[in-house]
């Protein structure tokens, strides 16, 4: 009777190895987490892109408006900032995320090189890697959306001072909205987040306006 007992113990111990390899349900649970992080990746890029587009173009238009009352230079500067910024954001985000992806792929290969099922696990890991094309497109699109707001605010206002005032008001409201969205996505205090974004945008517009006006008043004319 001792022999069967011994066989049972051996069989139980021999099953311990497949037990650790068997639960392939863990990747499914992780898949949900990784998918969330992938969505958070391009959502983060979208919010940051929209905020950058708004602040960059609004500041650029404020700077031009400080030395030129005509609406055409402001709009031309705004559109140039939109095109240049969208391309810059898309390329920068693409390169950044692609570099991150290469690093993660290399790490996955190193980890799977010592595993028997390395090829299967590597394929699964690759599916959960960040997408550089998606991040780049989201960043460029979001930058364009943010940049369009100050352009629309100033496009149909003829009076110079009213145009600048409306530009600041529209940019401020949009900054508050972007700050709240970022706080919701990051689960941070909404008031603090929106105030940081708003004050940062005000500083950017004020500095650009003041320095450009100072340069223009010292003899550099457009």
Automatic annotation (TrEMBL):
One GO MF term on file is: iron ion sequestering activity
Q: Which GO terms describe its cellular component?
A: vacuolar membrane
Keywords (alphabetical) are: Ion transport, Iron, Iron transport, Membrane, Transmembrane, Transmembrane helix, Transport, Vacuole
Its record classes its membrane topology as:
Multi-pass membrane protein
* Organism domain of life: Eukaryota
Q: What InterPro entries does UniProt report for this protein, alphabetically?
A: Ccc1_fam
Q: What is one Gene Ontology biological process annotated in the Swiss-Prot or TrEMBL record?
A: intracellular manganese ion homeostasis
Q: Quote any Pfam family the record assigns.
A: VIT1
Transmembrane spans: 42-62, 74-92, 135-157, 164-185, 197-216
Q: Which reaction does it catalyse?
A: Fe(2+)(in) = Fe(2+)(out)
- Localization per Swiss-Prot or TrEMBL: Vacuole membrane
Where would you say this protein principally sits, based on its record? membrane
Family per UniProt? Belongs to the CCC1 family.
Name the job this protein performs: Vacuolar Fe(2+) uptake transporter.
What is the protein's given name? Vacuolar iron transporter
Organism encoding this protein: Morella rubra
């Amino acid at each position: 009777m001792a022999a069967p007992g011994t066989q049972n113990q051996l069989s139980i111990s021999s099953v311990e190895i497949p037990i650790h390899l068997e639960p392939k349900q863990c990747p499914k649970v992780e898949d949900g987490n990784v998918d969330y992080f992938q969505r958070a990746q391009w959502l983060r890029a979208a919010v940051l892109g929209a905020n950058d587009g708004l602040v960059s173009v609004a500041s650029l238009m404020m700077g031009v408006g400080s030395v030129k009352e005509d609406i055409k230079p402001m709009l031309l500067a705004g559109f140039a900032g939109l095109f240049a910024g969208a391309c810059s954001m898309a390329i920068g985000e693409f390169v950044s995320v692609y570099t991150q992806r290469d690093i993660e792929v290399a790490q996955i290969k190193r980890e799977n090189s010592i595993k028997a099922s390395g090829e299967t696990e590597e394929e699964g890991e690759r599916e959960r890697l960040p997408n550089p094309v998606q991040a780049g497109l989201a960043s460029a699109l979001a930058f364009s959306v943010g940049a369009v707001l100050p352009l629309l605010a100033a496009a149909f206002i003829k009076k110079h001072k009213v145009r600048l005032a409306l530009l600041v008001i529209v940019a401020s409201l949009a900054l508050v909205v972007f700050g709240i969205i970022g706080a919701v996505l990051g689960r941070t205090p909404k008031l603090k987040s929106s105030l940081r974004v708003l004050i940062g945008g005000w500083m950017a517009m004020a500095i650009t306006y003041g320095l450009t006006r100072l340069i223009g008043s010292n003899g550099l004319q457009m």
